[in-house]
Write a structure and sequence with these properties.
Radius of gyration: 22 Å
Shape: elongated
Structural class: alpha/beta
Distance between the termini: 39 Å
CATH class of the largest domain: Alpha Beta
Bound molecules: flavin-adenine dinucleotide
Number of helices: 11
Largest sheet: 6 strands, mixed
Number of strands: 25
CATH topology of the largest domain: FAD/NAD(P)-binding domain
CATH architecture of the largest domain: 3-Layer(bba) Sandwich
Strand content: 25-35%
């Protein structure tokens, strides 16, 4: 009998959780599972701000997929997905084509530059491990080049976006820049570190008090905030901003864009109904009209009871994957009940460097400072536990050699 073909796209929080959950099942020879991912490794996106400043090495944030997966139960294909043809039930990749009976899509987010002129060409970002590593190299290059000038003018490092990712990056930068400056012989006072945010507060996704706290902590570390400020365009050497109707050009030596993410371009190019690379899925996480296609992680749009879309994050990505796997198994085994996705809020914490953080607990309590930072570190390991159990934590604690080439 021809086996039923299940294909999983993407090995991020969602896709890897789904793969490892399916790997544990006794599905026998009747089901063939294939995971397609463009890298040979899974990376922890939630640590990428640490890679961007050199606190984490590439290998510290990555896991070799061939070591994580039971390759007798899961075929791993290292390839880039270029198209989903739902009529033919076919996945196209750079190097081949793969037929599916069931599909789980977990391709994650991409940068949204909001069509701001110059952003695509000149901005750095930290959405993937490669982008974060590239940013760290550029920080070193920029500092080195500056050290070879007469250092009369300040060096402008500008972070676009004061949301979760922007604040986490600023937190790490304020701690690492003094060390990096010492290494290359620059007076750290010469660095002007700026944050530009469109909203009137940083961390607009959190309570106002938490945003205020984060801003005060970062201001103590000499970050200059431009709130309620629109970025109009970017060139290699300057950025045009608009604040209260006034347009101004400020010099920039290095610009990092953390403000915009959207879903995946392959989703928009498919014939599934989508908006900005995301698909609004049904309660069972399938695409309306496609009961054999599950969408999970950042590319799945799902709303709370008030109709507001849940913010994409790692926790919800993992939870979606677990629900999708349950429902897929119901379909494969033709027994059991399909489950609607129900989000269990476990709280959210944003770090402000190694020893400080802000967040909300699952009971809605605001937390700050050292205790929030400790909880954040624990929750990072809880993510590993939820994705791959104790063995993933063990692997992380025992990482010795490079896995990502
Ligand atoms: C710097 C940063 C910090 C964050 N911090 C937190 C945090 O503290 N807490 C939190 O909850 N969330 C955080 N997030 C958000 C969180 O990381 C995402 O919501 C989460 O990664 C979504 O999981 P996913 O599986 O949908 O996508 P991803 O984890 O991005 O995985 C997508 C996978 O698909 C692969 N892929 C992409 N395109 C292709 C293709 N064409 N072909 C094949 N494979 C492809 C990628 O290589 C990747 O492995 C952070 C995000 C960033 C960028």
């Amino acid at each position: 009998m021809t086996p039923i073909k299940v294909i999983i796209l993407g090995a991020g929080y969602a896709g890897l959780t789904a793969s490892l959950q399916l790997q544990k099942q006794r599905l026998g020879d009747q089901v063939e599972i294939t995971l397609i991912n463009k890298n040979t490794y899974h990376y922890q996106t939630i640590w990428l701000h640490r890679n961007a400043v050199g606190v984490n090495s590439r290998e510290a944030s990555a896991f070799n997929l061939r070591k994580l997966l039971d390759l007798k139960r899961i075929n791993f294909v290292n390839d880039c997905v270029t198209a989903i043809d739902s009529d033919q039930q076919m996945i196209k990749t750079t190097n081949g084509e793969y037929q599916y009976d069931y599909l789980i899509v977990g391709l994650g987010s991409e940068i949204d530059s909001f069509q701001i002129p110059g952003l695509k060409e000149h901005a750095y970002s930290i959405t993937t491990l490669s982008q974060s590593s590239r940013l760290f190299e550029q920080i070193l290059t920029t500092l080195n080049q500056y050290s070879q000038t007469n250092m009369n003018k300040p060096l402008h490092l500008v972070i676009g976006g004061g949301g979760f990712t922007g604040v986490e990056l600023l937190g790490e930068l304020t701690e690492q820049l003094p060390k990096l400056c010492r290494q290359v012989g620059i007076d750290e006072q010469k660095i002007k570190l700026m944050s530009i945010e469109y909203e009137p507060t940083v961390l607009p996704e959190f309570d106002l008090e938490l945003g205020e706290y984060a801003m005060q902590q970062l201001e103590k570390r000499h970050v200059e905030f431009y709130l309620g400020t629109k970025i109009k365009s970017l060139s290699q050497t300057s950025i045009k901003i608009e604040q209260s109707g006034l347009v101004e050009d400020i010099p920039v030596d290095l610009f990092v864009w953390t403000a915009g993410v959207k879903g995946h371009h392959v989703i928009d190019q498919s014939d599934f109904p989508s908006e900005l690379g995301r698909i609004e899925v049904g309660a069972d996480l399938t695409v309306p009209g496609h009961p054999n296609v599950f969408v999970i992680g950042d590319v799945a749009l799902i709303r709370d009871q008030e109709g507001t879309p849940y913010l994409p994050n790692a926790d919800i990505a993992i939870q979606k994957a677990r629900t999708a796997v349950h429902n897929l198994l119901v379909k494969l085994n033709q027994k059991g009940q399909l489950k609607p996705f129900v989000f269990k809020n476990r709280g959210t914490i944003a770090s402000i460097g190694a020893q400080d953080a802000i967040g909300m607990t699952r009971k809605g309590k605001k937390i700050f400072g050292r205790s929030a930072s400790i909880l954040k570190k624990i929750s990072d390991y809880v993510f590993l536990l939820q994705i791959g159990g104790l063995s993933l934590i063990w692997l992380q604690l025992n990482k010795k050699k490079s896995v990502n080439k």
